[in-house]
Specification:
It is found in: Cytoplasm. This is AAA+ ATPase domain-containing protein. Belongs to the AAA ATPase family. The radius of gyration is 21 Å and the shape is elongated. Helix 7 packs across helix 9 and helix 9 crosses helix 10. Strands 2-3-4-1-5 form a 5-stranded parallel β-sheet, sandwiched between helices. It is an alpha/beta fold and 267 residues long. Helix content is 45%, strand content 10%. The two termini are 26 Å apart. The chain is built from 10 helices and 5 strands; from the N terminus they run ααβαβααβαββαααα. Bound molecules: adenosine-5'-triphosphate. Adenosine-5'-triphosphate (ATP) binds next to helix 3, helix 7 and helix 9.
Length: 267
C-alpha cells in the first residue's frame, strides 16, 4: 500500500474480526491494556513479552488481528513485508531495519508488524546467504534492545514457522508464539457475520448455518470473504438483469445467492 513502512492507526475494529477469541484475550493482556494502563502494569511489576509470532495457514486473519490490536490500543501501526524489505533495499537492508525500529520508537506506542517474517529469518546457512544473515543479525540486535524500545510491540506473521531460525523465537525476540488456525464451523459463521456488516444481507439468511454447511469445510477467512463477494455478485447480477425486464429486482443478498456462491468457492 501507499503507507507501506509508515505509521498510522488502522481502521480495523474487533467487530471486523470473526472468532479468534483466545487470541483477542492474549493480546488484551499483552498489548492493549498495557498501552492503556501502563502505571498499573508498572505498579504490580508485571514483566511480559513484547514480541509475538502469529503462525498458521494463509488467510486466517493474522494481519487483520494485528491491525485490530493497534486500533483497540490506539497505537500506531507499521506494516513491513518481509520479502519487500529484502529485495527493495538489497545491500541496505540492515540500515532499513535500523530505520524501521527508529521510526517505531518515534511514534510509540506502536505495533511493528512483520508480514512473511520467515523471509527475513530463515535458518542461517540455508536459502538466503549472507544478505539474510546480516539482516537477521541486525534484526536480533534491534529486538534485543527491548529496554530501549518501550512502547514498541513487535508482531511477526508466517505460514512457515519451521523454516525460521530458532534464535529469533527466544524470549525477548518473537518470544510468544500464537497459532492462528483455520476457523471451526461455528467460527466460519462468526467470520461471515463480521464480513457481512457492510453488506445488504437479507434478514432471512442464517450466516451461522451457512458456516456450518459442509460446503464450507476447510475454508479460510479469506475464502469466506471470497464466498460473500460471490454471493453479492450473484445478487447484483440478478438485480441488473431484472432492471431491463418485468422481473422484481432483489434488494438484498439472499439464500439463493449464497447457494450459487457455494458452488464456486473452494479452499
Ligand atoms: P496471509 O498469511 O496470507 O498473509 P493472513 O492470515 O494475514 O494471511 P489476513 O490478511 O488477515 O490473513 O486475511 C485476509 C482477508 O481474509 C482479510 O482481509 C479478511 O477479509 C478475511 N479474513 C481472514 N480471517 C478473518 C477473520 N478471522 N475474520 C474476518 N475476516 C477474516
Amino acid at each position: 500500500s501507499r503507507r507501506e513502512g509508515f505509521s498510522t492507526i488502522p481502521n480495523v475494529k474487533w467487530e471486523d474480526v470473526g472468532g479468534l477469541d483466545l487470541l483477542r484475550q492474549e493480546f488484551d493482556r499483552y498489548i492493549v491494556r498495557r498501552i492503556k494502563f501502563p502505571e498499573d502494569y508498572e505498579e504490580f511489576g508485571v514483566d511480559l513479552e513484547t514480541g509475538f509470532l502469529l503462525y498458521g495457514p494463509p488467510g486466517c486473519g493474522k494481519t487483520l488481528i494485528a491491525k485490530a490490536v493497534a486500533n483497540e490500543a490506539g497505537a500506531n501501526f507499521i506494516h513491513i513485508k518481509g520479502p519487500e524489505l529484502l529485495n527493495k533495499y538489497v545491500g541496505e537492508s540492515e540500515l532499513a531495519v535500523r530505520t524501521i525500529f527508529g521510526r517505531a520508537r518515534t511514534c510509540s506506542p506502536c505495533i511493528l508488524f512483520f508480514d512473511e517474517v520467515d523471509a527475513l529469518t530463515t535458518k542461517r546457512g540455508k536459502e538466503g546467504g549472507w544478505v539474510v544473515e546480516r539482516l537477521l543479525n541486525q534484526l536480533l540486535i534491534e529486538l534485543d534492545g527491548a529496554d530501549q524500545r518501550r512502547g514498541v510491540y513487535v508482531i511477526g506473521a508466517t505460514n512457515r514457522p519451521e523454516v525460521m531460525d530458532r534464535a529469533v523465537l527466544r524470549p525477548g525476540r518473537f518470544g510468544k508464539l500464537l497459532y492462528v488456525p483455520l476457523p471451526s464451523p461455528v467460527e466460519r459463521g462468526l467470520i461471515l457475520k463480521a464480513l457481512a456488516r457492510k453488506k445488504p444481507i437479507d434478514a432471512t439468511v442464517d450466516l451461522i448455518a451457512i458456516g456450518r454447511n459442509e460446503a464450507c469445510e476447510n475454508l479460510s477467512g479469506a475464502d469466506l470473504s471470497a464466498l460473500l463477494n460471490e454471493a453479492a455478485m450473484a445478487a447484483l447480477e440478478e438485480k441488473l438483469t431484472a432492471q431491463g425486464s418485468s422481473d422484481i429486482a432483489p434488494l438484498t443478498i439472499k439464500e439463493i445467492h449464497f447457494n450459487r456462491a457455494l458452488e464456486k468457492v473452494s479452499p
